[in-house]
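Standup notes
- DV: blocked on the single-chain target, sequence here:
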Amino acid sequence: MTDDPGMEDVAAALLVSMSMFRRRMRQVPVQEELTLPETAALSRLDRSGPTTASAMARAEQISPQSMGATLGALESRGLVDRRPDPEDGRRVVLSVTEAGRALLRDKRTARIRQIAQVLAGEFTPEEQRHLMAAAPLIERLAQSI
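- DV (later): unblocked, structure below
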């Protein structure tokens, strides 16, 4: 008899723990300058590069109208820039401005500090090493789904 958990047990434990982590990250604000949809849109543009509003709406699984409103709010604050698509002048391509990147960096830095403070205060060095070892595996799992 083995002590190894079954794959469904591992999957269930990861799903519960990652869902709880994500929910808590949403509940505990770091900076209230951006709404959740604005943060998601700005982060996607930063990660994926310039794209159209319709492509972003599909990727975020929201309506084009909702994405348009979100992008309009980001653009009005100078966080997103709109330019004609060089390949098709009828379309508009959006990209993150330097101000948008700076805001994302500040938000990520604040979130990292928040998590680091909890890790330092409530986790042993051995537990911290386990979490560090698990991080790339969780990332690989996310990319493979």
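- Follow-up: The first strand starts at residue 80 and ends at 84.
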